[in-house]
Each structure stands twice: as C-alpha cells, then as structure tokens.
Design a protein that fits this description.
Number of strands: 7
Helix content: 40-55%
Distance between the termini: 73 Å
C-alpha cells in the first residue's frame, strides 16, 4: 500500500529539522572545546598555533562578545585600540589630578615604597608576563588571580606570589621593571557586592558569621530579636562607617586609595568593571602582548541589578549615606566616578 504524499513530506521535514539541531549541537560543542583548549594553552604558556585573536571567557571558556568570536589583529590596532588608549590617558589624567588635589600623601620614591611591606599587601606578581596586579576584592579579582596563579588551590590564590613576601631586592627589581595594573569599580556598587556575597550568598563563613552577630547586637533596635539573623544593609553601613576606624581596614571593602596605594603606585593600566568587556582584551593584547584574548566577566547592568542597588540604598538614612560617601570620597574622585547612590 502506498504511503500518502502529505505524511511522507511531514516525515522528511521532521527528519531534516532533527538532523539540523543535531549538527548544530555538535558544532557548538566542538567550538566550545576548541576555545577551552586555547585557554589552557595560554595559562600553560604554550604558543597558540592560530595567530588570529581568539576571545575566550577565562572561567567558562565561552565566546566573548556577540557575533563572531574571532577579532582580527588589524581591527584591534586601529580605531578600537586608539579609543582604548584615549580612555587610558583620560583615566590616568583624572587620577593624577585628583591625587594631587585631594589626597594628602607625601611623595615617595619607589625604593621607599618597597622598603615597607605594608605598601605591597595588595600586589601579586607574575614572572612569566612580567606584570604586577594590584588586586581589589569584589572586582573580578579571583577571575584574574586564577589566570596568573595557575595550578594553585583556591584557598591559596591570594597568598601565592605576593610581592610583600619577597626580600627588598627581589621586590624592587619587579617594581622597577614589571608593568602594573589595577581593576576597580564604582565604590557604592562594590559595597553592595560585598554585603550580598558575605551576608546573603555565603553567610556561613566563620569570620562573617561572627561579624553578623556583632553587627546585629550593636545596631538592631529590637534587642529581643534573634541575634543570629543577618544584618540589614543599613546596619552594615552603620557598622563600617562607625567611630572605630579599624573596621574600615578589611580587604573586601577598604578604600582603593588607602589599601591599594592608588596615588603612590604608578599603574600602566587602569581597568574598570563597568567596561571590562573592552578592558580585558586591551590588557591581554596591549599590556601582556598575548596572541589570545581572555574576555572579562560580563558586567551586570541589567534592570534587575539596578533595582537591587536602589532597594538596598533606599533603606539607608541620608546621614549614613553621607558617612559612606565620605569614607569612599577619594576613591570616587581618583577614578572619576559620580558621587551619588543609584536612584
């Protein structure tokens, strides 16, 4: 018995669609494996065989940006590179002007800087790339440290290759000859990131669990409420901006100018989380001169993210916001951020 024409057509269409999806899935998987392989080549110091600039996410191995994931070297050395150089020039000028005008830090030679290990607590060096990374917590620091400290356990990421652990001669040699870079972000959004990460997403970390209890006991108006509860954002702001200035020294929320010596140390590159999708490629191509570009984490500027910022800061009094602004005042000025909370 002959099969009717229409059912046969439908069957062929169904098989065509099925095979199209199957082939597409295979191509996607192969592409992803290829980029992960290229990332491993870079981290292990191997020379990529393909001289085209491949854009790869350093953590997931997914393609960077939209559209084609191959960016020609020619395109990156013309208008895009000129724009990036202009941005860097503007950031450097903003920093130098603000440091001279607002930051009361006496001039210090590189030799004097290196003689005090406390000046170098945030500096991680990498001899392969001849670079020093001035790391800031909550600004993709783990993302970058993983790249520079390969084969290091997560627990040891921030202790390996620390410049302040070297003897003076070894430290000053690297300070004189290695390029230096830093990544920062809007101080108010960084402060929210700290709060959410340490008190909401990972509330069981021993130090922050004890800190939560201390903040709630001191700032919770209802003393009968459960002291084990996490602090509100407003209570956290009041704690950090209180009279005890030692509370401000924690590396997760300390000032860029204070802890990272932003005005004392000359950086060859200043990156920002808000523009990381451009800053990461520029860093790895222009500063480190690699044949492969590692893309930065996506900057979360969605409406939902902005709404979270607005909701948290709306519960903080103007007086407390003023204190927090005072705490980060020079960070705003030195790196050219608008001194206002999200509204």
């Amino acid at each position: 018995m002959t099969t009717p024409i229409m059912p046969r057509i439908r069957l062929r269409v169904a098989f065509t669609v099925f095979y199209a999806f199957l082939i597409g899935g295979i191509c996607f998987t192969a592409n992803r494996i290829y980029h992960q392989h290229k990332l491993i080549e870079l981290i292990n110091g191997e020379s990529p065989s393909n001289k085209a600039v491949k854009s790869v996410d350093a953590i997931s191995g997914t393609p960077f940006g939209q559209g084609s994931n191959t960016v020609s070297t020619e395109n990156m050395t013309t208008s895009w590179l000129q724009d990036m150089e202009a941005i860097q020039s503007e950031r450097q000028e903003t920093l130098q002007t603000a440091c001279s005008k607002y930051v009361n830090q006496s001039f210090m030679t590189l030799e004097e800087f290196a003689s005090d290990p406390n000046n170098m607590v945030s500096l991680i060096y990498n001899d392969k790339y001849k670079v020093i990374y001035n790391f800031v917590h909550k600004v993709a620091s783990q993302h970058l440290v993983k790249i520079f400290n390969k084969n290091v356990d997560v627990e040891a990421l921030y202790t390996a290759n620390r410049l302040n652990k070297l003897k003076y001669g070894a430290a000053i040699m690297r300070l004189r000859n290695y390029k230096k870079f830093i990544f920062i972000r809007d101080p108010f959004t960084r402060f929210v990131s700290v709060y959410r990460n340490k008190f909401i997403e990972h509330p069981d970390e021993k130090y922050f669990k004890l800190l939560s209890k201390r903040i709630v006991q001191k700032y919770r108006e209802d003393k009968k409420s459960n002291a084990e509860q996490m602090p509100t954002f407003s209570e956290f702001v009041d704690y950090i901006t209180g009279y005890d200035k030692s509370r401000r020294a924690n590396t997760h929320w300390s000032s860029y100018v204070t802890r990272n010596r932003a005005c004392l140390l000359k950086h060859d590159f200043i990156g920002k989380l808000e523009t990381m999708e451009d800053d990461f490629p520029y860093l790895f191509q222009h500063l480190l001169h690699t044949d492969i570009i590692i893309a930065g984490p996506r900057n979360n500027t969605t409406t939902g993210h902005t709404s979270i910022l607005q909701n948290l800061y709306s519960g903080v009094s103007e007086k407390s916001i003023g204190k927090l602004l005072k705490f980060y005042e020079n960070d705003f000025r030195v790196f050219g951020y608008n001194m206002s909370v999200p509204k």
